[in-house]
Automatic annotation (TrEMBL):
Family: Belongs to the thymidine/pyrimidine-nucleoside phosphorylase family.
Entry-linked Pfam families: Glycos_trans_3N, Glycos_transf_3, PYNP_C
Name the UniProt record assigns to this protein: Pyrimidine-nucleoside phosphorylase
Keywords: Glycosyltransferase, Transferase
This enzyme's EC code(s): 2.4.2.2
Subunit relationships: Homodimer.
Length: 431
């Protein structure tokens, strides 16, 4: 078997069989298939696409290229939630504890942020002492004990994806939906969960900028789930505007706590409730939306969800007393941005706010960059909030002096209108 023959076969529109796909992945990981050969294959996929059977096998072989976490010893239906990345997206910090408080095991592997999107791991590591470096057995034991654990992605998980993603990035093959779907799903499946909820972000602050493309990606990932006997459901959510009021790390942790106290913003509440309802259906706790919402309300109002959050943080080494202290988030510098006229606020670019937060130090441009956990943005007036001239719109925070240019660069990313605008949070649901 030769890679050149398989490239030609695919280019001429024929379906690759299981043995051929297995050969491609195994020989590429071992180095026998060279980057220039694989880049030709990936470019062929860009133009020819893949059949559902090909995508399923491709994903499975990527998943099998490294260590697979075995969660069979965790009791119950194991659930995981994955977001394709967003601005102000601290959803896991809220959804995880709510679901765990309802006795559903949450076994989650998360990543760090890169570029304008924040990573769940970065937010958690802003809490002094918190560690994502659990062994596999510690991870399993913790989920069995308190129903929730979050760890970082390890180097031996899906090495095929790491090699392929780096190659796609430098050869212009990032935007292939079959390749995106197999990349996401290989990592999710390797972590061993039974049910996966995928939050596919859509808008100018997301990789998928329109709903139709997001639906295509969602459909591919659901198909992969069916091919590999997993319950995969997708919510397509709006990322044209930042989620909630906080963008950063420590300040996003504090917003998550407020939300668990029942004090979240309407858009973030809607996102979290929708995710929890879907997960409770997947975990077979209830199939009734009203009953699911009632259960979520109960664990928030009773304080059980917040208690579970603190238990989770403490179990993974986090200093809860420092987290609860008034000076947990204590940035040295701030810059207020005020309204110049009356009307209704509209934030039109989540991307610009994400980039601004990164420039303040809240994100990283390269993987080697250090994050300033104090840096970030607090939005005081969200889309459709009424605004009077001189009102505080938002505040920039950092541990270093703030360049006024960062605030100036945001001027085209919001406007104050005479009327309110449409502002949907959940754009579609698919299963």
């Amino acid at each position: 078997m030769r890679i050149v023959d398989l490239i030609i076969k695919k280019r001429e529109g024929f379906e690759l069989n299981d043995q051929e796909i297995e050969f491609i992945i195994q020989k590429y990981v071992s180095g026998e298939i060279k980057d220039y050969q694989m880049s030709s294959f990936l470019t062929t996929i860009m133009f020819k696409g893949m059949t559902p059977k090909e995508i399923g096998k491709f994903t499975l072989e990527m998943m099998k290229s490294g260590r697979i976490i075995d969660l069979k010893s965790i009791k119950g239906i194991k659930v995981d939630k994955h977001s394709t990345g967003g601005v102000g997206d601290k959803t896991t910090l809220v959804v995880g504890p709510i679901i765990a408080a309802l006795d559903v095991p949450v076994a989650k592997m998360s990543g760090r942020g890169l570029g304008h999107t924040g990573g769940t791991i970065d937010k958690l590591e802003s809490i002094p002492g918190f560690s994502v470096a659990l062994t596999e057995q510690e991870f399993i034991d913790q989920v069995n004990k308190i129903k929730i654990a979050v760890i970082g992605q390890t180097d031996d998980l899906v090495p095929a994806d790491k090699k392929l993603y780096a190659l796609r990035d430098v050869t212009g093959n990032v935007s292939s939906i079959p390749l995106i779907a197999s990349s996401i799903m290989s990592k999710k499946l390797a972590t061993g969960s039974d049910a996966i909820l995928l939050d596919v972000k859509c808008g100018n602050g997301a990789f998928m900028t329109n709903v139709e493309e997001a639906r295509k990606l969602a459909s591919q990932m659901i198909t992969i789930g069916k091919e590999l006997n997993r319950d995969v459901r997708v919510e397509i959510t709006n990322m044209s505007r930042p989620m909630g009021k906080s963008i950063g790390n420590k300040n996003e942790v504090l917003e998550a706590i407020r939300t668990l106290k029942g004090q979240g913003t309407s858009d973030f509440n809607e996102l979290c409730y929708s995710a929890c309802i879907t997960i409770l259906k997947q975990a077979k706790v209830t199939n009734d939306e009203k009953e699911a919402k009632k259960m979520i309300d109960e664990v928030i109002k009773s304080g059980k969800a917040l208690d579970k959050f603190y238990e989770f943080i403490e179990t993974q080494g986090g200093d809860v007393q420092k987290l609860k202290a008034k000076d947990f988030w204590n940035p040295k510098y701030k810059l207020d941005v005020l309204a110049e006229n009356d009307g209704f606020m509209e934030i039109s670019s989540a991307l610009s706010f994400g980039i601004a937060a990164s420039k303040l130090g809240a994100g990283r441009i390269t993987k080697e960059d250090n994050i300033d956990f104090e840096a970030g943005i607090e939005i005081n007036k969200k889309t459709n909030d009424e605004v009077k001239k001189g009102d505080l719109l938002f505040t920039l925070y950092s541990s270093k002096p703030i360049d006024m240019q960062i605030a100036n660069e945001l001027k085209d990313s919001y406007q104050i209108n005479k009327q309110k605008v449409e502002n949907k949070v959940i754009l579609d649901r698919m299963e």
